[in-house]
Structures are given as C-alpha cells and as structure tokens.
Amino acid sequence: VHRRVVLHRTAVGGGDGVIVVALGLQHLHGGGQHRGAVLTGEARQHRIRGERRERVLRAFAGADLIFTGYEDGALLSGETEPEAIATTLSKQFEIAIVTRGSQGYTVGDRHSVLSVPVTPQPVVDPTGAGDAFCAGFLESWLADWDVRIAAEAGAELAAEAVGILGGRPSH
Fold it and tell me: Is the pTM of the predicted complex or chain greater than 0.70?
C-alpha cells in the first residue's frame, strides 16, 4: 500500500497555535480512518506543563509519527531518559523520534527503541536543524518504510543544515 504525507505541522511557541494542529489532524484522521495518509506532527511547544501537556497530546492524537526535541519530549512524556521518552510517546504514536542535537537521536516504536549517536559536525548556524531532520526522515521513510535508514537520512540532512548559514541544505 502506498501512503503519502498529508500533513506535517509544527506547534511552536507559547500560544494556542497547537489547536490548529488538533483541528487539522482530527479532520484528516477522520475518526480513525487514514484513507492512505500518513499524519505527522512536530512538538516544539515550550512551556508544556500540566493542562497544556494534555492539550498538546490531544492535538497530535491520530498522528502516525511525532518528532520532538529532548526537552519537549521530556515534558510531554514525564520521562527524563531519551529511551523512556521514545517508549512512552510510542504508546500513543506509531513512531516517536526524539532529537538530541549533537548527542544524536532516539527512535521508538511499539516494539523497540534505538538510540544512535551522530558524528560531531562544526556548527555554523543551528537554524533549521530540526526541520531538516524531519524532512530527511520523511523523505527516506516514505521511500522504503525503514525507520533506522530514515533516521540516518534525517541526521545527515540536519548535519548539512547546521554547517551552513541559514540552515537550508541544497538537498
């Protein structure tokens, strides 16, 4: 079965923009029927605490994948170790990806969790590293559905992004 990405939306900042994500995912998800779509979300909601944490998780309900940085993943999951964060989040999402900058990334699904270090790169500008990781991951994952290869592709594109001013790899 060939699937395509219908929506990849980020929740950024301290406002209520996350509600836009909720409406989009719930509308496209159609009450549990993907209709051939892959839904992804990227949690970058600083100040995720208490009731807001539940709102963010509800907003991403129905997503197949969630991308999150370590700090936001810890707040969403209530866990402190990257493997535990990915394991906890993968109970709600098919795949949870926790990026940890120069320390690598952790990918979890309902069956396993994998932490992978990355080769240190000189950082010219960190702008766009997370977006580049998501783009590289999704492009690879949609081509062959291999999570490990997709995560490696995401890490490679993120490394390229931090090595240039403005974070826009030519890939």
Answer: yes
